[in-house]
Specification:
Layout: E1 6-14, H1 20-30, H2 36-48, H3 64-69, E2 76-81, E3 85-91, H4 99-106, E4 111-117, H5 122-127, H6 132-142, E5 147-153, H7 164-181, E6 190-192, H8 216-221, E7 238-244, E8 248-253, E9 265-268, E10 273-276, E11 284-287, E12 290-303, E13 310-313, E14 323-330, E15 347-352, E16 355-361
Parallel strand pairs: 1-3, 1-4, 4-5, 5-6
Antiparallel strand pairs: 2-3, 7-8, 9-10, 11-12, 11-15, 12-13, 12-14, 15-16
């Protein structure tokens, strides 16, 4: 087996309307993270609201209020995979009111992707003293994000289109500012792209054949692997808390130092509340009319899907397409029967974040003895 990919966090920063959400959405779409039918639906919704150019940004704008206002408010987390890394993208908003949110996202990032509007007027507004290109770059450096990729976006809308002269002008001016902030511009790739058309996002664009550097995807793979201080005590800043049906309250954050494992006793600050980290994967089980969170307590065996023969005892994991016998424990009491005796009560599907991750049948049930109520009379 190959080495597991390292997880990295990327923050997307830049001036309002520089194309952050569109670029990010298109990148994820190109890397197969989003179904084409979903993009088509986004395109239709965006067209209905006269915001056709927002179709890729729609990917990161989940809330209805955000869609109607055409701005990204909450930091949207989205994942995709490069040849080297598992990437989580933090889409930081560009409107000045939301600098607080941007700080929250930036402080968790390993690399900043600075999106620059290359159009006439767009670049000048962003790099001006009141513009957010400067402010975001300064914030990123101050908050400890030492690696950066600069994307000269909207190259399809420069005058003339895909202008090398405009690109060179932007690189010179942005490099000068980044050097003042504390970055080394020689170590920062400046990638000319079109977030909407997809130029230089994944594959090299013939429209930009004068550019010999990396594509955005290649630049992401060139990020230096971050060192995680796992030898220090656990510190995990909570970014958000979700309430997920059938599972309950789920805190979300990144382990900054130390490590987290099942069975550990942790303390939440500043309340001082102490609790134990639970063991096992706990998605939702759909069985007849029940929808209950279950814990995968034990992977008993891995079996051949066709013959049913045992391949491996106590496998460490089951991947997509594998079959196995698993011991599951519901978090609440539920009624279930074996498939052989009562087929309708013995089939199940397992869902995680609304995605079906497993289907199967019940082979055996450990039943609780009935208690309370009148006992049946013997005849």
């Amino acid at each position: 087996m190959g080495k597991e990919k390292v997880h990295i966090n990327i923050v997307v920063i830049g001036h309002v309307d520089s194309g952050k959400s569109t670029t990010t959405g298109h990148l994820i779409y190109k890397l197969g993270g989003i179904d084409k039918r979903v993009i088509e639906r986004f395109e239709k919704e965006a067209a209905e609201m006269n915001k056709r150019s927002f179709k890729y940004a729609w990917v990161l704008d989940k809330l209805k209020a955000e869609r109607e206002r055409g701005i990204t408010i909450d930091i949207a987390l989205w994942k995709f995979e490069t040849t080297k890394y598992y990437c989580t993208v933090i889409d930081a908003p560009g409107h000045r009111d939301f600098i607080k949110n941007m700080i929250t996202g930036t402080s968790q990032a390993d690399c900043a992707v600075l999106i620059i509007d290359s159009t006439t007027g767009g670049f000048e507004a962003g790099i001006s003293k009141d513009g957010q290109t400067r402010e975001h770059a300064l914030l990123a450096f101050t908050l400890g994000v030492k690696q950066m990729i600069c994307c000269c976006n909207k190259m399809d809308a420069t005058t003339p289109k895909y202008s090398k002269g405009r690109y060179d002008e932007i690189v010179k001016e942005v490099s000068s500012y980044l050097k003042k902030v504390g970055y080394n511009p020689d170590k920062i790739p400046f990638v000319p792209i079109s977030g909407f058309e997809g130029d230089n996002m994944i594959e090299r664009s013939t429209n930009l054949d004068w550019y010999k550097g990396p594509t955005l995807l290649e630049a992401l793979d060139q990020i230096n692997e971050p060192k995680r201080p796992s030898d220090k005590p656990l510190r995990l800043p909570l970014q958000d808390v979700y309430k997920i049906g059938g599972i309950g309250t789920v805190p979300v954050g990144r382990v900054e130092t130390g490590f987290l494992k099942p069975g550990m006793v942790v303390t939440f600050a500043p309340t001082g509340l102490t609790t134990e980290i639970g063991n096992g994967y706990a998605p939702v089980l759909d069985c007849h009319t029940s929808h209950i969170a279950v814990k995968f307590a034990e992977l008993v065996t891995k079996i051949d899907r066709r013959s049913g023969k045992e391949i491996e005892k106590e496998p460490k994991f089951l991947k997509n397409g594998d079959a196995g016998i698993i011991k599951m424990v519901p978090t609440k009491p539920m009624v279930a029967e074996t498939f052989s005796e009562y087929p309708p009560l013995g089939r199940f599907a397992v869902r995680d974040m609304r995605q079906t991750v497993a289907v199967g049948v019940i082979k055996a049930v450990e039943k609780k003895e009935p208690s309370g109520g009148p006992k049946p009379k013997k005849k």
